[in-house]
Amino acid sequence: MKDRDQTHMGGTTEAFLTTHWSLIENIRSTQDRDRAMIGLLLDKYWKPVYCYLRRKGYDNEQAKDLTQGFFHEIVLNKNLVQRADQAKGKFRSFVLHALNQYVINENEKQSAKKRLPQARLVSLDAIDPAAIPQDVGTLDPEESYNYAWLSALLDEVLGEVEASCARDGLEVHWKVFHEKVTQPILGDGRPPSLAELCRQYGIEDEKKASNMVVTVRRRFQAALKEHVRRTVLTEDQIGDELGELMRFFEEGAQHSE
Amino acid sequence: MAAKSTFGSDPNRLRRRLSVGLETHTPQESSGGIDPRDILLEKPGARIGRYEILEVLGEGGTGSFTWQSNTSRSDDVWP
């Protein structure tokens, strides 16, 4: 499982990671249920699951335990994936649906902790947000799940784009794109003008700086599409999933900046 | 210069970052002129070529912006 190949973006990714559906299948088919692979799944999805559970009213420790228990269930319960409506094909929807079912079942049994394995699959020590961000705290459980899902997706994709730029000697391209486009979205300051960026990085002219932004933005778009592709079953679901992600917060105008 | 994590940001900001990654409004690399992204990112009071942005009037469903502007110079040519 250590094989790595080059994506068309130039980033490295585990060879088995064709889709996240196949990630689960690979975990299940591994005889010793490789903890590293389970950790990989948990690492990718703990935040949406944890946020959902917190917004369901569980406290930090309860949410952490249930997050562990859920991933244990999703990995080891063969029927869970088989019962999933893969016709819908969205891994995000599958995890949310499975999580809903898991919470209902656990509530019915009122024995969430008893069902946890004696030895935890992986440590959650590194991911111990005793408090969830204020903005997440204003969302309902499903919104918070989607919020955390989208946040993790964007962070991973942008991290990959930055790495690919560094590898290809396009560090200045990344800086120009980041300072002009992505950074101002999260900050309060005004984005620098292209002229300012030209002066700062010794770029020939604004046209060239503008093209640098376009180049990195295209990388961002391609990487985003590729990452979403791994969570759906068919190519034509990529646009559908991206559109759905965009619509998550359209009604969230009340979340004023 | 790593991108700051979006986790904890306002949901609308998350959506705006996502919109940058959508292919619907990718400008072409240009051989001249003004980059449309500058229009998306500038704020009232900013100048784009001969135009000065007075007010952002609204945002379209796909992330496009409408703005009101005036011209302050007559010798610049809009691309």
Summarize the structure.
The complex is a heterodimer of chains A (257) and B (79). By secondary structure, chain A is an all-alpha fold. Helices cover 62% and strands 2% of the residues of chain A.
Description of the molecule:
The complex is a heterodimer of chains A (257) and B (79). Chain A has helices at residues 20-29, 35-55, 60-76, 78-83, 91-109, 141-167, 171-186, 194-201, 206-229, 237-247; strands spanning 4-6, 12-14. Chain A is mostly helical and 257 residues long. In chain A, strands 1-2 form a two-stranded antiparallel ribbon. Chain A starts with a strand and ends in a 10-residue tail after the last helix. With 79 residues, chain B is α+β, with helices and mostly antiparallel strands. Chain B has a domain at 33-73. Chain B has two helices and three strands; from the N terminus they run H-H-E-E-E. Chain B has a three-stranded antiparallel beta sheet with strand order 1-2-3. At the A-B interface, helix 6, helix 7, helix 9 and helix 10 of A face helix 1 and helix 2 of B.
